[in-house]
Amino acid sequence: MLRKNPTGHYPQVAQSAFIDPTAIICGHVIIEDNVFVGPYAVIRADEVAENGEIEPIVIKCDSNIQDGVVIHSKEGAAIHVGARSSIAHRSIVHGPCYVGDDVFIGFNSVVFNTHIGNGCVIRHNSVVDSIDLSPNFHIPPMTNVSAGFDLSSIAKVPPQYSEFSESVVSANNALVEGYKKIFNEL
């Protein structure tokens, strides 16, 4: 469901994207080409900053926002999800937040107030809070990193996880076309 926020912003969704009918996209949200938004996802840009403005939530091309994901921003702060990125089941991306290209955020993970570099893999049940990740970091399953954490103790992304991320993007791109056919949108 696409809907306006109280300030009158209405989502902008590319014709080639697929939004599941159970998902809620609200407010100043920009969804680019070939994005898949799965069942019960919520992408909501409706909180206003002190200056009365709302920065957009932008989901770049070929990304996928899977079942039950919540993307929301505090006080109108921007959220950017890069191209070919995957936000897996029941994850939370809370702004302010920047997620680079080719990033995988595993199920039940939470990211907040962070800049995640291109090619990062955040495995399931992890938290990244108020700390930035340079490109190609691998956050192991069930790991919490926040301000002051020694990131040098974490290895670069193993090749098998990058390959897995690419396969998830490919599978979800196929779902965009398949579901659009089912819903007669092509």
TrEMBL record:
Organism domain of life: Bacteria
Record GO terms (molecular function): transferase activity
Record key words, sorted: Transferase
InterPro entries: Gamma-CA (IPR052265), Hexapep (IPR001451), Trimer_LpxA-like_sf (IPR011004)
Magnesium found in the keyword field: no
Annotated coiled-coil segments of the chain: none
Name by which UniProt lists this protein: Carbonic anhydrase/acetyltransferase-like protein (Isoleucine patch superfamily)
Organism from which the protein derives: Celerinatantimonas diazotrophica
Upper classification of the organism: Bacteria, Pseudomonadati, Pseudomonadota, Gammaproteobacteria, Celerinatantimonadaceae
